[in-house]
Amino acid sequence: MHETGHSFYKYSMLSKSQISFIKSLHQKKYRKENGIFIIEGIKSIAEFIQSSYQIHSIYYLAQYQPLLPALPANIKLFEVNNAELDKISTLQTPQGILALVNIPKNPVLDVKQLQNTFSLVLDDIQDPGNLGTIIRTADWFGIKQIICSNHTVEVYNPKTVQATMGSLSRVNIFYQDLAPLLSETKVPVFGAVFNGKSMYELDWGKEGLVILGNEGQGISPEIIELITDPVTIPRIGGAESLNVAVCAAILCADISRNFQK
């Protein structure tokens, strides 16, 4: 339950140790060590407050206080000035409010969760913006889970979190070795490749895993062998390739259209 009677603390200055702690969370090593990541912007913060994620603390410019939704009493609140926000923000142009959020325990995927639904599988995606956009796209199309290879970029990278625009609060992200999972699953394994069946001729059915490969290398050879249904987005023009996040959006749209027939 959210309490409305939260007392707002007003600090004239953040301590050096607070600033240094928050700045350390810009790096993966310290996010992992402390189990905390950063989100920025009132819209994203509001969505995380309404989710199952635990907010650790919020740092805001005075004008953002009235925009905050009702908060649980255990969230620490700090009013900051522009200079302090500039120091702790991961953005070139800070958005007036920043929150620290506890990283949940690594969820374990039950293969039963793959039945009667579609999930995206990411094989070594490296660009944090791409990962964030894919999460946001999955959320738009109602895809609830994304399974990442162990070498896919970290989901709590600030650029990834920013690119999800709050959608990370609604999509479950799993990291694991893909080969064993793909070997034991009973649902179809679709893979986005150049020489697959045209998505316009494909029967997606009602369930499946949809694999998207690394930006430069595509899907790795050991994973390609485990694809049961290779699929391609037919090329009409002259572009050599498609951005992986755009590819994800096109395939999700086609799956969604198939569902609505």
Automatic annotation (TrEMBL):
One of its GO terms (cellular component) is cytoplasm. InterPro entries: Alpha/beta_knot_MTases, MRM3-like_sub_bind, Ribosomal_eL30-like_sf, rRNA_Methyltransferase, SpoU_MeTrfase, SpoU_subst-bd, tRNA_m1G_MTases_N. GO terms for molecular function: RNA binding; RNA methyltransferase activity. Residues 38-107 form the RNA 2-O ribose methyltransferase substrate binding domain. Keywords: Methyltransferase, Transferase. Belongs to the class IV-like SAM-binding methyltransferase superfamily. RNA methyltransferase TrmH family. This is RNA methyltransferase, TrmH family. It comes from Pedobacter steynii.
